[in-house]
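We emphasize that the prediction below concerns an isolated chain of 313 residues; any contacts that depend on oligomerization or on bound cofactors are therefore not represented. The input was used exactly as deposited, without trimming of termini.
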Amino acid sequence: MFLKRKQKIKNSDIEQKQQIGKKSYPILHIIKSLQNYQKDLVQKEVSSLFELNMVSRSFDEVLEEAGQFQTKLQNFEQNFYRISQASDGFISVKGDISNSVVEAEGEVEVLKNISMSLETNFGEMDAIFTRLQQDMEKIEQCMEKIESIADQTNILAINASIEAARAGEQGKGFAVVATEVRKLADGIKTLATDVDASVKAVENGTKELNENIKISQQTLMEGTGKVQKTYETFDKITQAAEGATSVQSDISMVIEESQTALTTVCSFFDKINERYQDVQEHIKIASNLGTTKSAIFEDVDNLLSQIPPIVED
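Result of the prediction step, given as a token string:
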């Protein structure tokens, strides 16, 4: 009797557990599903934290490259500054060139005035030598006349000597005079010959000197023409210097615009750095939240793991 009752109680307990098992199955199934979801969420959270870490590293690399690029841009800015300084040096050089050109033009002007004065003097000397040559020709003509007169006088003296010889004693005094006249005529002829030789020598020297003066005058005229070309060259140098000033102005304007653009770009990189710091802060916050969620997921997993034994009991 007792055994039957005990068996009955045992069967009743089994039936009760089976009924409880049937009723708790949906709950256990939900708990199992929640545990699976929780594991899936934990895995995805780990993946999310990993991706956040990769994003952070990528931002670090991008920021490093941006910093290097910004440094290069700043170096460019320094180069532009040095170019600007060198360009500003054009103004000083242009001023030195202009001063040198003005000084050289002054010296050339003095040289030109001296050349023109010498050219005038050479013209006057040429006229003087021309008149001198004409006077020497007149002297030569006069000396030819003197020689002719001396020859005629000599002939007359010879004739007078012949007539004096014919006159005998009466003509002796006249013969002495005729002899002296002939000597005088010979002396005049000799003197005229010497003077004529001297005149010809002077005339030849005058012609040679006159030719040298003409050559010097021609050379001086060519020099004056070169002085004028020198003026034109100085004008071209001045124009080139002014052109350099215009180029320097253009360079300065381009450099100023480039520096402004570089400043804008560097400012843009500064803003990117600020935004990066914000992103890094948000990534840090997200990572912290991920760590917190991991702890929560672990707590949830512990809670879920405690429910089935409770339900089964």
